[in-house]
User: Fold this.
Amino acid sequence: MTSTSIILTWSPPTAVVPISYNINRRCRRVCESSVTSNSETSVSSPHTSTGIPPYSQCGFDLSGVYGAELAYLITNYLVTTLSTAPTAPVGDIIFSSVESVSMTVSWDEVPCNGRNGPITGYYLTYTNITSNTSYTVNITGGDNRMYNLTGLILYTNYTVSIIPYNYNMNGPARQEIQSTPDESKPSIATDLTLATILASSTISYSTETTTTTTALTTPLTHRRLQAWALGGNAQVDFLTNNYIHDSGVGIQCKLW
Assistant:
């Protein structure tokens, strides 16, 4: 027996020997329920049944041909073909809880028609693209499809490669790239409450943690203000510690 074939042998019945033998075969991959059937006539022992997917369970019926009549000699003889290396990679790789020094990696299972046996583990390799430093983790257990990466470097690109295996036979890898964020960057101002205002007015904006009201006639610290005089074409950038002096002039503002 191999991963794709099964050799069947039998002895003829002692009473009356059939003229010939027929075999009916029903096979399905162990990981799925759909069944394929096949019939072979005028076979003899030993007989090699071929064209079976790896790691499939097959049921065989052996019948003897006596002229126009058939006699079932063996029914539903069960055999499972051997495993072989996976021929398909894992499904989608998913990144979650991505932070500056850690992230969680999970992945979808290898499709049934590419497993060729029970998946017994995965090799997960993550590589710092900048330094070309790699680390490999052996994750055992076919249903254990999640791993937390820690000790990463902020604002860095990482490749994550996952190789499935069954009984030390490796399958193809799937690879994705994910970046860690730079949490030291300032937050972006949002929710500007007044789009068109006077220079003597105040504006209110929000960050991720606070809401601030700033008078346009005071220094703008830690923020940049873009302002356009209404009806004009000129654009003015007011940087940190700059003042707006056009009192009474309508201004349209964008703050970040």
User: Anything to note?
Assistant: Residues 95 and 105 are 5 Å apart (CA to CA).
